[in-house]
């Protein structure tokens, strides 16, 4: 019930130089659970923004009245990575020693926000549901922790895909839950849901 909403939400997107450089934003209005209406869109060219500073942007909504006020900062990723199983970041003994030193008891209060990080090895899925008429699926796996999201590549025409990827997330809240969802890629259409598991960090 507001024409001037304030969300004050922060989202972290992992921007890699070989990915798309445009940030696409949509504003939606929701009347009830079934009815939604698009109120406008806007786009931000990430490559045009100065790095290592917070950029205050007022973005007019395209073909609709209104604008969005946003703070966008482009900074080096800390503690976030995607790698193959054979080059796992924690596989290097020197790196393990540095991490042990970083999180030892005497350094506990050096950086209160640096709680730690989570490393997830996504190996494979077994006996997935067939989403295509051919009796196969094109599965990929999405990992979400708080507002962080990373995903694997798609393995086409396979119900027992092997991804063998290693994902590393910085932990911002020890009460967060790691959500791992498997989808079927469906071309230009939204992906089909194949399954999900939720793992509380406190259970690890």
UniProtKB/TrEMBL annotation:
Localization terms from the record: Membrane
PROSITE patterns found in the cross-reference section: C2 (PS50004)
Pfam families: C2 (PF00168)
Topology within the bilayer: Multi-pass membrane protein
Claim: Coiled coil is one of the keywords in the record: no
Domain (C2): residue spans on this chain: 1-59, 93-204
GO molecular function, one term: calcium ion binding
Family: Belongs to the MCTP family.
Protein name: MCTP2 protein
Source species: Edolisoma coerulescens
Lineage of the organism: Eukaryota, Metazoa, Chordata, Craniata, Vertebrata
Underlying gene: Mctp2
């Amino acid at each position: 019930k507001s024409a001037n909403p304030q969300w004050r939400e922060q989202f972290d997107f992992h921007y890699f130089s070989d990915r798309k450089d445009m940030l696409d934003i949509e504003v939606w209005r929701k009347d009830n659970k079934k009815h939604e209406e698009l109120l406008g869109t806007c786009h931000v060219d990430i490559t045009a923004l100065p790095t290592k500073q917070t950029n205050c942007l007022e973005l007019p909504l395209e073909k609709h009245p209104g604008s969005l006020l946003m703070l966008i900062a482009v900074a080096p990723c800390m503690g976030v990575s995607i790698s193959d199983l054979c080059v796992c970041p924690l596989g290097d003994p020197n790196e393990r020693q540095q991490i042990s030193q970083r999180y030892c008891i005497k350094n506990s209060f050096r950086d209160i926000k640096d709680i730690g990080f989570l490393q997830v090895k996504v190996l494979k899925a077994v006996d997935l549901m067939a989403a295509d008429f051919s009796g196969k699926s094109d599965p990929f796996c999405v990992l979400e922790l708080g507002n962080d999201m990373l995903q694997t590549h798609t393995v086409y025409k396979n119900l027992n895909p092997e991804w063998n990827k290693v994902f590393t997330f910085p932990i911002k809240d020890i009460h967060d839950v790691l959500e791992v969802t498997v989808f079927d890629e469906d071309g230009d259409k939204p992906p089909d849901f194949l399954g999900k598991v939720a793992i509380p960090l406190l259970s690890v």
